[in-house]
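Ticket #4471: structure output looks truncated?

Reporter: J.K.
Steps to reproduce: submitted the chain below (100 residues) through the standard prediction queue, then opened the result file.
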Amino acid sequence: MPVGLYGTEEGMELKASFVQVDPAIEQRKYFSFYPYEYRLAIEKQQMLMPVTMPLKIGLQESFEWYLANMEKVRKKPFMEYIDENCLRFATTGCADSSPG
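Returned output as attached by the reporter:
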């Protein structure tokens, strides 16, 4: 259900309210979506990797490799980084580079 905003004048509190829209009206008529669809072009990927495998098998092989090679994986303290920088990102955006 779409949400309408009101109270945008300076000094007024911004509040949200639900807006009833007739289900027969397409979403693109009241949301600002561009009328296009995404298409994933995989031609170059297929040139690099002409042989593929099912996702489940690939995940299993990757997991087995990880278990056998854990010492080769360079682990980063992502959770600590998020905890330390969460407030700054919430106010300034996530423009900084990732940890080490």
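Triage note (M.O.): checked the attachment and the full token line is present. The first helix runs from residue 43 to 48.
Status: closed, working as intended.
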